[in-house]
C-alpha cells in the first residue's frame, strides 16, 4: 500500500515537472508555428464560402464562413499574448509602438486594395451596387463598415467588416491592458463583454442597420477575439497554464480538438445562434491544443511548408481573394469555359495566393522592415 502511495507521489512530482517544463517552453516560444497553418485553413475556408457554398445542398458546406472566426481566435490570442509579454519585459509596453506596428502591417495593403476597388468600380460598375460602394466608402476608409454597412452578398468590399472589427479591438483592448492593473478585473471585464456582446448580437435584427447604433457596436465585438484574449491570459499565468495543460496537453488532444470541430460544424446549422458560439469554442480548443505544446499531434502536418506559406500570406489573400475570384470568372468567360464553382474555387485560391505572395515579397515587406526599424518591441 505504501509502495502504491509512493508511485502516485512520484507520478505527481513528474507531472508537475512536465508542466513546469512545458510552461517554460511556452513562455520562451516566440513564434507559434502551428498557427500559420491554421491561418491557411481559415483563408481557404473563406474562399470556399464565397465560391462553393451555394453549390451544395448540405448545410455544412456553408460553414466556410466560420474561417473568419478562426482568424479572430488566432488574432486575439497572439495580440494579447504579445501585450502581456511586453508588459513583463524590462522595457515595458508601449502603446505607440504597438499601434505603429499594427498600422504598418494592416494599412498599406488594405488601402492599396481599397484604391484598386475605387478605380475598378468607378470605371466598370455603374449598377446600384457600384453607387452603394461610393456611399459606403467613408466607412471602409475609417474601419467602421461593421457598424454602418448592411452585410449582403452584392455589397462590394463587404468583407472589410472583419478588418474593421479587428482594428477596433486593436484600438480598445490594449488600453484596457495598460490602464487596468489588476488581472482579475480585466478578466471580469472580458467576461462581461462576452456575455453582453452575445446578448446584443442575439437581439440584432436581420436588417443590421435597423438596430440602434450602440447595440450594433456592442454586437460587433467578435466572440473569437474575446475568447482568444481569454486564452492568452489563461496560458500566460503558470497556475492556469498548468490546469489547461493537464486537460489538453496530452497526446491526442490536438486530434481530439479536430474531431470536436468537425462535430460542431455538423451540429451548428441545426442549432442556430448557439451554433455560432459552438464553432468559436471549437476554434478556441483547436488553437489552445496547438500552442500549449509545440510538439502537438498535428505538428507534422501543420509545419508542411506550402501550408505554412499560405498562412504567412493569408492576410494578403483575404484582401485580394474577391478580386482573384472575379479574375478567374472573367477569364473563363473570355475563354468560353463554364465558370463552375469548383474551378472558380481552385482558380481563385491559386490566383489569390500568387498575388498575395507577390504583394508580400515586393510590397508589404518594405513596410514590415519599417515596422521593425521604428517600432521594435
User: What proportion of the residues form beta strands (DSSP E)?
Assistant: under 5%
- How many strand units? 0
Mean residue pLDDT: 88
The sequence of SSEs as H and E is HHHHHHHHHHHHHHHHH
Separation of termini? 55 Å
How does the major sheet shape up? none
Helix content: over 70%
| SS field, number of helical segments | 17
Structural class: mainly alpha
Shape: globular
Radius of gyration: 22 Å
Task: Provide the low-confidence segments as ranges.
Answer: 4-14
Task: Summarize the structure in words.
With 377 residues, this protein is mainly α. It is 76% helix and 0% strand. It has 17 helices and no strands. It has helices at residues 2-28, 34-51, 67-88, 95-124, 128-141, 145-148, 161-179, 183-203, 213-219, 223-236, 238-248, 253-267, 273-291, 299-302, 305-312, 314-334, 341-374. Helix 2 crosses helix 15 (305-312) and helix 12 runs antiparallel to helix 13 (273-291).
Q: What is this structure's SSE topology?
A:
Elements: H1 2-28, H2 34-51, H3 67-88, H4 95-124, H5 128-141, H6 145-148, H7 161-179, H8 183-203, H9 213-219, H10 223-236, H11 238-248, H12 253-267, H13 273-291, H14 299-302, H15 305-312, H16 314-334, H17 341-374
Helix pairs in contact: 1-11, 2-3, 2-15, 2-16, 2-17, 3-7, 3-10, 3-13, 4-5, 4-17, 8-9, 8-10, 10-13, 12-13, 16-17
